[in-house]
# Entry
Amino acid sequence: MGRPVAFVDQHPGRGRREPGRAVGLSRPPAPGGSSQLPAPGGSSRPPAPGGAWDGGTDPATDEALRALAEPRRRAILRLVAHQELPAGQIAAAFEVTRTAVSQHLTVLKNAGLLTERRDGTRRLYRARPEGLAGLRQLLDHLWAASLDAARQLVEAERGIVDDEREAAG
Amino acid sequence: MGRPVAFVDQHPGRGRREPGRAVGLSRPPAPGGSSQLPAPGGSSRPPAPGGAWDGGTDPATDEALRALAEPRRRAILRLVAHQELPAGQIAAAFEVTRTAVSQHLTVLKNAGLLTERRDGTRRLYRARPEGLAGLRQLLDHLWAASLDAARQLVEAERGIVDDEREAAG
DNA sequence: GACGAACGTTAGTGAAGACTGACGATGATG
DNA sequence: CATCATCGTCAGTCTTCACTAACGTTCGTC
# Structure
């Protein structure tokens, strides 16, 4: 069915867990076929209606978002936002096994949200502010754009009301 | 094993999809047993080491984060951030079926990230800036706290270096 | 060297989640 | 009224993901 293709959402089929990758956060199928769809700002094609398209999030931001979608990982990040803590102390704050917490720490680290430092047998973790930069940028962009859309609607309504007044007057 | 319980991570076991809830985003098991753990700011208990604990995210923000963790939902939100669009036009921008896009629209709407308006047979969707407020707040808080932690480490290093100079001098 | 502490990795399990095909609902048109 | 357009819901399938138990690695101590 001849569909308008503003962008190509290639779905190469779901794969198994990638070898060498931690539990959780397998690389998602690039919804847009990311090699085909440059990010906004670097576009070599005119954007789809509405200006933004898939592939608009760099992989680091995607990984950070998916890492934070799990409540325990958010809790971990909150714990180590103020000061670095050893893995054991972080794990003690959770009801799940130390193994599960260790796996979450790995996901956060791989997503660039944590730094790790070794001190003898201990591994000390701390939140990494740079890891949040892409997320903040994404949200700021969405925020600004959605305010813009809301403003357009208000103005459109005002135009309609004014037109109706003119027709009646 | 007598564990220090900074907070209780109750895990009532994963449940089936809740009746009446859309595909995707079943209510996650509250990692902290949220009725037991007030959010920061309203705390009736001293906070865990590091100041933040689980249950620190209100359900709306949790749902928004999980909604945005899926790349296609982010793409949808980008599409409708600048202007409202009908469901069919949104779906035309994706390779997956219209059913899948419809399900994603429902998830975004339930997460408070989209508004819907009907125009005859069409349903028009637009990004909802208020839906992002909690996420922005969460990230701002994490950003500020992690800068604080980085600063503490730098100062601690400076203190160590200074102490070493005093010992050698 | 052995042993213990601190912590990560592997493999398997069960639930959540994203998808599709088929079907249902609502509004507009003739 | 029937028919079409627009779009959502339902049920099933398959993949992803968070968990646990068991095992492995590194560092410090004796």
Notes: Chain B is about 45% helix and 10% strand. Strands of chain B lie at 85-86, 114-119, 122-127. Residues 11, 14, 22-23, 86-88, 91, 98-99, 102-103, 105-106, 120-123 of chain B lie near DNA strand D (CB under 10 Å from a C1'). Chain B touches chain A through 67 residues (CB under 8 Å).
